[in-house]
Amino acid sequence: MAKPLVYLDACIFLRYIDAKEPHHNEAVRWLDEARARQLEIVTSVISIAEVAFSAQEKLGKALSVATERTIDELWKPGLVRIVEVSRFVATEARKIGRRALDQGLSKRVRGADTIHMATALVRRVDVIHTYDSDWKAYEPILGIQICEPKSTLLPFTGPS
């Protein structure tokens, strides 16, 4: 049986680096299960910038060396599969945005969010996990389950 292929939005990695976040332990568990090879985690390369910027913005100052080290550990080969934003992914993101506009959904997510969604679509993930509740409306457009991660759902909530 193949390991579940799970897309994690950048917001989940933010919970991982901040032990004070309410969902920190869930984020830790996701990464522990990836380390144990129980699932594969995929995210877009834009998560690298989003996580560092959001963490710094939250603090209102430069990140500590320890926090930067924790963030850098996330992106080392083997833990999280980082997917580059190719022309194909960008075109798929544009298509998602257009379909959303046709369905009256375009104001709910940012352009970077459609890049995340297109990356998940192109990589054919089993499920997308995010704490952004607006993404749920994109399920019919993507044909991929989108849900908020919860401890009771781990490690996987997608189809068998």
Describe the structure.
The protein has 160 residues and is α/β, with parallel strands linked by helices. It has a single domain, classed as Rossmann fold. The chain is 48% helix and 12% strand. It has 7 helices and 5 strands. It has a 5-stranded parallel beta sheet. Helix 7 links the parallel strand 4 and strand 5. Helix 1 crosses helix 2. The C terminus is likely disordered.
Question: Keywords, please?
Answer:
single chain; 160 residues; alpha/beta; Rossmann fold; 48% helix; 12% strand; globular; disordered C terminus
In one word, what is the shape? globular
In CATH, what is the homologous superfamily? 5'-nuclease
Per DSSP E runs of 2 or more residues, the count of β-strands stands at 5
User: Structural class of the secondary structure composition?
Assistant: alpha/beta
Q: Helix tally?
A: 7
**Spans where pLDDT lies below 50 across 5 or more residues:** 151-160
Calculate Rg over CA atoms: 15 Å
Distance between the termini: 9 Å
Structural domain tally: 1
So what's the CATH class?
Alpha Beta
Could you outline the blueprint of secondary structure elements for this entry?
Blueprint: E1 5-8, H1 10-17, H2 24-35, E2 40-44, H3 46-59, H4 65-74, E3 80-83, H5 87-102, H6 111-122, E4 127-129, H7 139-142, E5 145-147
Parallel strand pairs: 1-2, 1-4, 2-3, 4-5
